[in-house]
Amino acid sequence: MELNPHDLLKLEVSQDLISFNPIPEWVSDSLKKAPYVVVRRASGTKDMAAVGIRGDNRSERFAAFLPFAKIKERITPEQIVENKLWHRSERIHYIAALSALLQVNEIMGKHSVTWGPTGSVGFELATCVPTVNTSSDLDLVIPRFIDIKKARQILKDLCELDVRLDVQLETGKGAISLLEFSRGDSHVLLRTKHGPRLVDLFELQK
């Protein structure tokens, strides 16, 4: 099964998870509220996806594996945008990270770029479980590589929004920061399944 980092996967029960470490009690409680896990940027197996579970606090994060056979539903960041799931949010008018989505959608549409929200914003929109607060950042992913000129144009428009943004650009070899990419430095930090590494930007664009 072809899965990408940030995809949300629905499961039936916490017992479907596989872990080589004891599973904390909060994991079961968290999955009862929202039975979804997020695909991690890590190596899985031919039968299992590497996933992460989020709790109520930042300190509550747990890595595990989920057999493909136990996946009940998959929601990608792009599907959140395609279905404009923010329209069903009752909190969009007073949470900055949510209300900014309308403007982000206009900006990305103007530049003909596919995108999607990740992190707490993506999780809340997909599950309808409140996870975003007034100080939350807006994490975004652009799942297809774009040229540096377009990256700079997008960032220029996004910088006008009144919210902290973290935009990741998928390259096919891993993800890089859109901001770092736009600077045109000779080397950028690439997030891969085997951990972060510094790579030559020219080689990355081949």
Automatic annotation (TrEMBL):
Q: Which residues cross the membrane?
A: none
Name under which the protein is recorded: Malonate decarboxylase holo-ACP synthase
* The organism's place on the tree of life at top rank: Bacteria
Taxonomy-wise, where does this protein's organism fall, top ranks first?
Answer: Bacteria, Bacillati, Bacillota, Bacilli, Bacillales
Under Pfam families, the record lists: MdcG (PF10620), MdcG_N (PF20866)
The chain positions of domain Phosphoribosyl-dephospho-CoA transferase MdcG N-terminal read 5-77
Residue ranges annotated for the Phosphoribosyl-dephospho-CoA transferase MdcG C-terminal domain, each copy included: 92-200
UniProt keyword annotations, A-Z = Nucleotidyltransferase, Transferase
Which molecular function GO terms apply here? nucleotidyltransferase activity
Keyword field contains Transferase: yes
